[in-house]
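In response to reviewer comment 3 from the previous cycle, which asked for concrete evidence that the modeling workflow produces usable outputs, we include below a single protein chain processed end to end. The sequence was submitted unchanged, and the resulting structure tokens are shown without manual editing.
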Amino acid sequence: MQDWQAIRNQQIAFFKEGKTLSIEERKNQLKSMRQLLTENEKELAAALKKDFNKPEFECFITEIHPVLNAIQEALENLYSWEAGYSVALDQRIHFWSSAKLQSQPKGNALILAPWNYPINLVFHPMVGAIAAGCTVIFKPSENVPQTAALIQSLCKKYFPAEWVYCVTGDAETAKALLKPAWDHIFFTGSTKIGREVMLAAANNLSPVTLELGGKCPVIVDKKANLKVAAKRIAWAKLLNAGQTCVAPDHVWVDASIQSDFLLLLKQELQWQYAHLIKEDSATAIVNLGAFDRLIELLQEVEYEKLGEIERDRRLFPPCLVINPNSNVRLNKEEIFGPILPIFSFTDPSEPKRSIERNDHPLAIYLFGHSNKEMNGWQRDSRSGALLRNELIMHLGSEHLPFGGIGKSGMGRYHGKAGFDTFSIQRSIMTKITWLDLPIRYAPYGSKLKWIKKLL
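The workflow returned the following structure tokens.
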């Protein structure tokens, strides 16, 4: 095992010495991250290709560019994020006092990243941590060994170990990393492992951000542009072979348009997947364990596959399942693959009731809904995000904090939200001493009636 504990001690000392407090030094580290990504883009894409056949196009739009965008946002706004702001106080209580809120880095952070977007989900939260002035130890997933090894070697080249350090290893390494106290733990992964992370963090009262999963629903009503809806849903489901926490997990469609919608959806899925196969741009399922799990999910239902299942290359085609029984695993687990259940409804409130009966998803996607209906969804449903006529693209904005609710996660990041996650909002108050009214001091006597009048 790597001697990460010695590095952690170095990071603790480095932070206590105030070495991360300089905003210009933080910016330099962010620029080093940008340099790492831009100078090694081809190598990173090649590693992802080896790990699970991820195409270079998806590597750039889902892995590299979002982080570069986050870095630029932080570089442009770091001084204003750090500056803090004055707070108005009630002068009846705090007479002749002034106050402000000031951001302060939490300290030493641990980031545990998943395999599905192994570049983005390592570096994106790290942008917030470095911008805030924290040191970072992070572990990429062992399920993408080529990418993890490359990231580790690049981090040694571009970052000082006392500020940023990469640890590689399996689940036992992650458990060991979770034993000591951290000033913040940032975990992205499944709800099941998220519980274990939170339990481990509780032993030391370490604060946590959990970016977890969920069954993100799509609701298509009869006013939707069906062609556009089918195209966007197909794209979102095929992106990264459905191995995305905010991928459409299942679709609710108005019964009056179901046949028309299904025809368009099948055409789009077949057309897009065929071209991905032709270009060798179809992302594979990450490993045979995950591949066989998808096969097991299909064994309980009738389905239509829109391509060939290729276990030797771990290529899984889009598969449609119409109105599966509520008791099957497909309806109980996050699918995390290109299997798409379709449900029909006649009562527009049925999808909403179904969603509220289950765990709150990371995102809810609506197609065709009016402004009034959108307002109703905003009022009556709960999820990390709510999108109309779009899927997944909210992740591309640094101005939209990203995160879940309940079992889909806790905490937010992206843009200033990421900076705030790794910061303490410190209250600072100053009061004059040349006047000191005696009313608050003992003896109290008859002061209560005057206090009540004052307040």
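The chain has 15 helices and 16 strands. We consider this sufficient to address the reviewer's concern, and the full set will be provided in the supplementary archive.
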